[in-house]
Each structure stands twice: as structure tokens, then as C-alpha cells.
Design goal:
Length: 413
């Protein structure tokens, strides 16, 4: 597919993340308006609530609330109907463009908010390169992967209450740690603060408690995707994670990008999961490609300094897709809800520059990363800005996610 031209001229640039091919969904407000649902097109946000109020779209009262949850509950047929209608309204030559121009707000004049009410948050550990790197650091290459890793997507239940939108400042967490040469643990600020470059899948259709879903059904349940940064306190994690896994090391913050790129916008970018050393059990097998070819990068900028891109990788490096993760999550009869957020787990590729965390990039602090300003980083320092970016590239256009940004600020006194 090539670029679909819009009467919103800025959307026609081949380097713009929000062409008509994309139409990502978000929630915004301005100095004059309360929070409301909108769709990004070029340099603007089209007010979906205003479209509904003026009869350009007809979806009942689902846009009265400033989140996309109520709309997601209407199901995939309605998801596609809205996308088709928006495409027609915004296409080059559309009859309604003069009227619709009044419903456009420059993105630079808007404040962006969480696009959904996050009901639950689950994060996975599903990149083989990441798992091998981390496992090798702590257990050696022969024991890098746990015995179950090649059979199931491993995950843990996180905190929906601390999922925040891009731009939210992140307070350095405190917690209990134990030095190798210490007899007792101590409590204080995290010293090994890290990021995890991830994608987040948003569940748009529920499942009933006591029932399972197939991988194909799970794929149909996913409304769209966001960039996700699962901030991690590695020193806290190292002390607390046995035997039940991450807890306070992950609970303090998870950042997501403000725009949901729908599964329908990503259809042409589907990619296959890798060849497997062992066959998966039937309930986890895929009938079609379920990953996506999405280029990703991480930038790190010390306070007042230029940014250094410290990692570049691709979502197609994952060992398990979001659909497989969702199918496994529901396999026990666990009920999935509209607004559930599933983190992919850190996305790493085979090369050193493709590692999606500082833990891997600096190899546990032994190989500090060099920055443009001449400094180095092993882990994140106060004042650092971390920026995640992602886009799928088509013929003369890209389907972008915008940015997922977080600035680290010192522990509150």
C-alpha cells in the first residue's frame, strides 16, 4: 500500500508519523476544552467528540467519556466502521473538509492524556535475545533460559495504578537492597535504574472467567498497540525477585505513548515469529503472522545535553507475539477485560546496539555506554530524559507511534 493522501497537507509528508494510513487514537485537552477523544492526522488532532455531536459519525454516547474504553467495547465491526469513516472524511477531495477544519486542533497546542482507563497490566519476558543476555549475566550461557522459557510466554502481573502517559516525570524509586558483602539489607534510593523498550498491546474485547481463547481469537481481541517503557530498579529487583518475581522494582512506574496505533493500521506490516527449537503446544500455535515489522529506538539525553540514540531494534525480534501472550494469559480461565494492557517484555535483537535495556547495553555496568557529550552511562541518572520511538515503514509513508518520554527526577524528600 502507498500513501493515502489527505486534505490535511501535513499528513502527506513521507516522514510524518501520522498520515491518513495511520489514524492513531488518543485523548487530549486544550486551554479551552476538557479531555476528549481525538484522532491524530498530520500536525493536528481531529476532535472525535465534536464529530459525534455534529452528526459526522454515529456511535451512540461512547465518546462522552474521555477514554476509548467505551468505544472498544462495541467490538471489531465498529472499530473498522469508524476507521473507514474517518478515512473518507479526511481523504483528499472530501466534501466535508471545510466543516471539519473547525474540529482540528494543532497537536502543539494540546495536552495529551492516557488514551484508555487501564484496567489491568501484565508484563512479559518474551524476547529470546533479552532473556539470553540477562540469563547469561546471572547464570552463565548454559543456564541462561529457564526450563519453561521455550514453551510458554513468561509474565507477571503489574500495577495499572502507575501506568502513566508519555511526558510524566518519574521519581527515582526507593526500596530495599542488599550489597554482596553486606550482612543485612538497607533501604534507600535505587542506584541501578533502567528502562525496558517494549510494545504494549491493548485488549479491546473481554473474555469470560473460566473460558480460554485461541491465538486467532486473541489477535481479534487486540484493539491496538502503544510504545511502553517498563521502568526497572535493577538493584531492588535483584534482592526481591526470588521466589515470586518482580514486585517493587517494577511497581513504581510504567510509561506509555499517548497514541494507540490500531491493529488495522498495522495489518500490512505483519511479520512471523522465529523458527523454534521446540514445537509449542497446540493452544499457542499461530495460523498466520502475528508480529509486526516496527522499527524502534531509544534516546538518552542528560539534563541540558544532546540526545544519544543508545539502541535500535525491531518488534519483529520477539519470540512470542501479543496474541500468543493473550491466549496464554486466558488459558487458565483468567478473565480478560477491556482496557487490559499487555507489555511485550524488553525487545532486544542479536547485536549489541539492538539491546532494549541499559542492563544489557552496559552488560550489568561493566561496559558503560558512551554519550555524545563525552560522558558515559551504565544506568539512568537524575535529570536524564529517556525517549522511545517507533514506526512501521511503508511505500512513501510511515505509521508512527509518536514518542514515549520520561524524565527522571530525584527522590522526594
Amino acid at each position: 500500500m502507498s500513501l493515502i493522501r489527505s486534505w490535511v497537507e501535513s499528513a502527506n509528508s513521507p516522514t510524518h508519523p501520522f498520515p491518513l494510513n495511520n489514524l492513531p487514537y488518543g485523548v487530549f485537552s486544550t486551554a479551552d476544552t476538557k479531555k476528549r477523544c481525538g484522532v491524530a492526522i498530520g500536525d493536528y488532532i481531529l476532535d472525535v467528540q465534536a464529530l459525534q455531536a455534529n452528526g459526522f459519525i454515529v456511535f451512540g454516547s461512547v465518546f462522552n467519556d474521555p477514554s476509548w474504553n467505551a468505544f472498544m467495547e462495541q467490538g471489531r465491526d465498529h472499530w473498522r466502521q469508524l476507521r473507514e469513516r474517518l478515512t473518507a472524511l479526511l481523504a483528499e477531495g472530501a466534501d466535508e473538509q471545510e466543516q471539519l477544519a473547525a474540529f482540528l486542533t494543532p497537536i502543539e497546542d494540546a495536552k495529551l492524556h492516557l488514551p484508555i482507563v487501564v484496567t489491568e497490566f501484565t508484563d512479559f519476558y518474551a524476547s529470546k535475545y533479552h532473556a539470553m543476555n540477562v540469563g547469561t549475566m546471572f547464570r552463565g550461557p548454559e543456564n541462561a533460559l529457564p526450563p519453561n522459557w521455550l514453551h510458554i510466554p513468561i509474565g507477571y502481573n503489574g500495577r495499572a495504578s502507575t501506568v502513566v502517559v508519555s511526558g510524566t516525570k518519574i521519581v527515582r524509586p526507593c526500596g530495599q537492597t542488599k550489597a554482596l558483602d553486606a550482612d543485612m539489607p538497607s533501604f534507600g534510593p535505587c542506584n541501578r535504574l533502567d528502562i525496558e523498550l517494549e510494545m504494549g498491546a491493548i485488549v479491546g474485547r473481554p473474555s469470560e472467567m473460566g473460558t480460554s481463547v485461541s491465538v486467532d481469537q486473541a489477535d481479534e481481541m487486540i484493539f491496538g498497540y502503544v510504545l511502553l517503557n517498563d521502568w526497572s530498579a535493577r538493584d531492588i529487583q535483584a534482592w526481591e525477585y526470588q521466589p515470586l518475581g518482580p514486585f517493587q522494582a517494577k511497581a513504581f512506574a510504567t510509561s506509555i505513548s499517548p497514541w494507540i496505533v490500531t491493529t488495522d493500521a498495522l495489518e500490512q506490516f505483519r511479520a512471523t515469529t522465529p523458527e523454534r527449537e521446540r514445537d509449542l503446544l497446540p493452544y499457542l500455535r499461530e495460523s498466520k503472522p502475528m508480529l509486526f515489522d516496527i522499527d524502534l529506538e531509544v534516546g538518552l539525553a542528560p539534563e541540558g545535553m544532546a540526545e544519544t540514540v543508545i539502541a535500535r531494534t525491531n518488534y519483529n525480534q520477539m519470540y512470542y507475539s501479543a496474541a500468543q501472550q493473550l491466549a496464554h494469559h486466558a488459558s487458565s480461565g483468567c478473565a480478560m477485560r477491556v482496557g487490559d494492557l499487555l507489555g511485550s517484555g524488553t525487545i532486544s535483537g542479536p547485536g549489541k546496539s539492538e539491546r532494549g535495556s541499559l542492563l544489557e547495553l552496559s552488560w550489568g555496568g561493566k561496559e558503560p555506554i558512551k554519550l555524545k557529550d563525552g560522558g558515559t552511562r551504565s544506568f539512568i541518572e537524575d535529570g536524564d530524559t529517556l525517549t522511545l520511538r517507533g514506526a512501521a515503514h511503508g511505500d512513501g509513508f510511515q505509521v508512527g507511534f509518536g514518542e514515549c518520554v520520561g524524565v527522571i527526577i530525584p527522590v522526594k524528600e
